[in-house]
Amino acid sequence: MRLEPLRRRHIRACVEIERLLFPGDSPWSASAFHAELDAGGYYLVALDEQDMLVGYAGLALMGTPGDWEGGLHTIAVHPDRQGEGIGTALLRSLLARADELRAPVVLEVRTDNDTAITLYERHGFERVGIRRRYYQPSGADAFTMVRPARRTQEVTG
Description:
The protein is of the alpha+beta class. About 30% of the residues lie in helices and about 30% in strands. It contains four helices and seven strands, in the order E-H-H-E-E-E-H-E-H-E-E.
């Protein structure tokens, strides 16, 4: 598996994974992915040995040099490839970018997604709040989680 920047040619495959993973909520559309790229977000894809897209993740960066903040907007792995470390690799790459900028990172995660919550906590995120009925149309709640800014040399595996 290798990681590379998300390109417009990858968006169709991302949308297909969205539909598989989030059928009870509002999966991202192609236009949502295009808008994120247009806004300058830091997006990566995971490609397998046959160049099939098996995951993707994106970090929005807001602010100005010296005062950045990151928002983990999405992270997803194809259901057939979960449990192989792809999500961990994507997350670590996004966090490395945030660490280069010394940016804290904020995210929302479904309160019933124990696998994702465990992954985020392993990487220094803490629960700081709850957003009731955040995901629509299901009405599922979300935890807001934050990882403080880190200097690159403070980050450990």
